[in-house]
Amino acid sequence: MTPHLPLPTQTTEEKFLRQIFVRDQMAEWSKHPLVMERADGVFYWDVTGKRYYDAISGIYTASVGHNNRRVIEAIKKQLDTLHFSPPMHGTNPIAVQLANLLAEVAPDDLSTVKFECGGSEVTEAAIKLARQYHRLTGNPGKYKIISRYQSWHGSTMGSLAASGLKSRKTVNEPLPAGFVKVFPPTCYRCPFGKSYPDCGITCATIVDSVIDMEDPSTVAAIMVEPIGHTGGVIDPPEEYLRILREICDRHNILLIFDEIITGVGRTGQMFAAQTFGVTPDVICTGKGLSGGYIPLSAMICRKGIAEAFWGPIEKNPGFVEGHTWEGGPVACAGGIAIIHEILERDLCRNSREQGARLRSGFERISQKYGIIGDIRGKGLFQAIEFVSDLKTKAQFPAKPGFGVRVGKRALEQGLLCRFDPHWIAFGPALTVTAEQIDEMVAILDKCIGETLAE
Fold first, then answer.
1. Cα(223)–Cα(253) distance, rounded to whole angstroms?
2. Structural domain contains residue 375
């Protein structure tokens, strides 16, 4: 295959690589630059023609696979009719159709939708919604957002302030005020030194104490990922989200689920709220909703929340939030096609079934090598944590980290996964087959064995 892009050489590498910022640390990435040229199904091909299994859907985004013709044709067709509508003056029929569709598939009375272009925008919008809601309902002092350490809610300043990753926060500080952090429900490494189920779910009940110390009249919302990603796919105990729901109800606080990753079928139901059986006041979804085809995200709120923004303009300004590309007809056409693809092909069921197969594969690897301390996640969103000692849960040295070594070896052998020093995560497309799951797990198995033998 003839590459479409010039490959960097010793003489052109620096010039080639300085033309673009990448997500990774640039000097490090430039040592082994990865430039993808095309994709199909659950595969990528780079500019050299090398094929990769895409075990993380790009970045948990390609929900219905790469090169999905139904989605592509829907986008192309919409371009011939209306490619942009004036967002300051109204909306368009395609955005209304997608909003109605999301209201149908969302849990309970989550039925009012605000479209955005990405995860950071939509979590930022949810923060604004919570503060504006309380102002409109007679509680203007409720402005604080409680979120968790090790969380990631986005790159804009508000969503970044709600995030709990020091590596991404510190370089941008000082951040906006009004954000309070609590420890996440990391049962495998409980920050309170307890063990489930005899722990009293301290990670959840302590939030009530934090609210009391902060003063409930100042707290607007609790924002959490139902399954936290950046801490190593933090899968909470089943009581955790229900307890947060009860706390929010008691203190007139909004419960916001950041389902940028977990939404749109990833955990085996359309939303993780349904997987866990807990209804939040707001769901933020993105990534899988766009399928990676065109930027799209959505904030879905409960009917009672939306009604607070309805009233005469003299007394009620409505929801003060907007972006140029919100509710764009082309993006919404793609979103409609993706949801229909998931519903008609029953991809939530496939997520559950292939997720169970993935879990079995991880368990086989765990039994084989004795270095996997924990397996976490649900559906097609799962991770394994590496330890050097199963009894003490001691970790391998952090630099470069066993997970990084395995992940880089996997990349060399054609497997794209999410890797950190101590864990590796998979999140393939909802269209993945049993055979493809087995092949991905087999490559990971081989890479773990080779890394141990080094």
1. 10
2. yes
Residues facing residue 257 across a β-bridge: 224, 283
440: domain range?
34-55+346-453
Residue 246 burial (10 A CB sphere; 0-12, 13-18, 19+)? middle
Tokens of 265: 């079928």
Joined tokens for residue 156: 């804009």
- Global pTM exceeds 0.90: yes
What average pLDDT does the segment 165-171 reach?
87
- Counting the structural domains of the chain, the total is 2
Cα angle vertex 446, ends 441, 449, to 5°? 125
Average pLDDT value for the chain: 93
Beta bridge partners of 419: 424
pLDDT one-digit tens code per residue, 47-102: 999 999 999 999 999 999 999 999 999 999 999 999 999 988 889 999 999 999 99
Strand ranges for 126-261 from DSSP E: 144-148, 179-182, 219-224, 254-259
CA 335 to CA 97: how far, in whole Å? 10
258 is written with which tokens? 């950041």
Query: How many C-beta neighbours within 10 Å does residue 194 have?
Result: 14
Residue 3 domain-assigned? no
Which amino acid is residue 42, in one-letter code? V
Residues 6+ apart with CB under 8 A from 417: 55, 56, 407, 410, 424, 425, 426, 440, 444
CA 73 remoteness from chain centre: 26
Q: Return the structure tokens found at 447.
A: 């890479």
What pLDDT score does 169 carry? 84
